[in-house]
Amino acid sequence: MNTRGTTETIHDQIVALLPRLRRFARNLTRSPSDADDVVQIAVERALVKLEQWRSDARLDSWMFKIVRNAWIDEVRSRGRRDKIFLAEEAGENVGESSIDRETDLMSVQSAMARLPEDQRVAVSLVLVEGLPYKEAADVLDIPIGTLTSRLARAREALQAMLEPEGKRR
Amino acid sequence: MTISDETLMAFADEELDAATRAAVEAAMRADPEIERRVAQHRAMRARLQSAYAPELDEALPERLLATARGARPASSVRPMRKPAARLRWQPLLSMAASLVIGVGLGYVVQRHSSSVLTKGSDGRLVASGALAKALSNQLGSERIPSAPVHIGLSFMAKSGDYCRTFMMTGAASPAGVACRRADDWQIRVLAQPSDDVPGDESAAAYRTAGSTLSPVILDTVQQQIAGEPLDQNGEIAARQQGWQSSHR
Question: A69, A110, A127: best mutation site toward chain B, by most B Cβ within 10 Å?
Fold first, then answer.
């Protein structure tokens, strides 16, 4: 059990993590408003079970995992809400239409949005959030070999989308 | 020597042990193509990081900050997930609407609640007395210390019924979820604080959180809810209709 002082420090640490949690959740959900919902749920859950966090473990990895679980639970339990909200939020999504001819940054995000979820999440954790492979594999509950092969496939796909000419010799 | 692309990727990500790293470095010196592929992996990493860096500077929504700081969430913001489910509860019953009422429930009904829970004509458990009255009239935002029942969340269930979470006040009093069907409040789930569980000494430490929702109730809400919980205006509107859903 954490002491009071430790708990307060952890509140500060979680506040400091919010921008990254949010960024990760956006890559996960591909919807800014879903992402904020998921982060909120995840932070609430994390605070409830803070005592399960081992202080020798990375707080960011632990929180990323809770974010991902919150998203999975939400998808399963949302049901009707999904259908109602997807239409409204279509404009906000980093979708397929608003891309191309845009800036370089836009095309990175749109290329990411086209990856299958498991690849997108692997890229997001390792390349965007900077987690070591081992940490990312733990977040996703997969063996490290699975993580690296997803990562390799994702990079290949991104390369092909972002720099199709890069393949030429 | 041939080096797989995954190894080159791991090299670019600085994930290799010293020996493999040295082998890749030697291969890069010997083969410009390998060097080019490593550079490509590094460039991709840098490109992703710079593409996503600006998101870290965006202003954060106040509700996220408040939650992270440990403030109680505003009642309009997903109260069903408030981080206060520490009270240990023993689920006595988690029944689908049509399940037969079991022995354990009869025990609870007799022991604590015979005046507020009765069997309906079809054998299902329904609220009566003060509980039925509170479910029909009390708003979730009302916290009357002397009231025998506290109402938590109100929501529209996927079945199209209005449902509300409740908690009887007093020690070891049950809490649950009730849904409006015709003129009855049917009990969907009933749970009891774990004060009575022998050997669970940790329970006492959590007993202070008087008005929280138990995990079993939270789970029920999350499984059954359609959309968001009702806010106060939604509750008032539903009450005016006698909790009869217009969606059915």
Answer: A127
d(CA A68, nearest CA chain B) in Å: 16
Q: What angle do CA B214, B218, B223 make, to 5 degrees?
A: 150
Instruction: State whether the Cα torsion B157-B159-B162-B165 is positive or negative.
Output: negative
pTM to 2 decimal places: 0.53
Q: What's the complex ipTM?
A: 0.80
- Say if the Cβ atoms of A11 and B77 lie within 8 Å: no
Query: A151: how many CB neighbours lie within 10 A of its CB?
Result: 23
How far away is chain B from the Cα of A89, in angstroms, using its nearest Cα? 15
Higher pLDDT, A112 or B98: A112
CA–CA min distance B96, chain A (Å): 17
CA-based nearest residue in chain A for residue B51: A105
* Mean of per-residue pLDDT scores for chain B: 74
Provide, rounded to the nearest whole percent, the portion of chain B with pLDDT above 70: 68
Q: What is the nearest CA distance from B109 to chain A, expressed in angstroms? A: 31
pLDDT at B15 (0 to 100): 97
What are the pLDDT digits (tens) for A62-112?
999 999 999 988 755 664 344 333 333 333 444 444 444 444 555 798 899
The beta-carbon neighbor of A77 closest among B10, B86, B222 is B222
Query: A80–B227: do the CB atoms touch at under 8 Å?
Result: yes
Whole-angstrom distance, CA of residue A7 vs CA of residue B69: 10
Give the pLDDT confidence of B153-211 residue by residue, as tens digits: 888 888 888 999 888 776 667 788 899 988 889 888 887 654 433 443 343 333 323 33
Both structure tokens of B162? 């209005």
Q: Is the pLDDT of residue B109 over 60?
A: no
Q: Give which of A20, A23, A28, A40 to mutate to test B binding, by max B Cβ within 10 Å.
A: A40
Q: What is the pLDDT of residue B220?
A: 79
* Residues A17/A100, Cβ–Cβ less than 8 Å: no
Cα-Cα-Cα-Cα torsion A71, B14, B52, A12, nearest 10 degrees, comes to 60
- Find, among B217, B88, B63, the residue nearest to B155 by Cα: B217
Let me know: does B155 contact B163? Beta carbons within 8 Å.
yes
**CB B177: neighbour CB atoms within 10 A?**
27
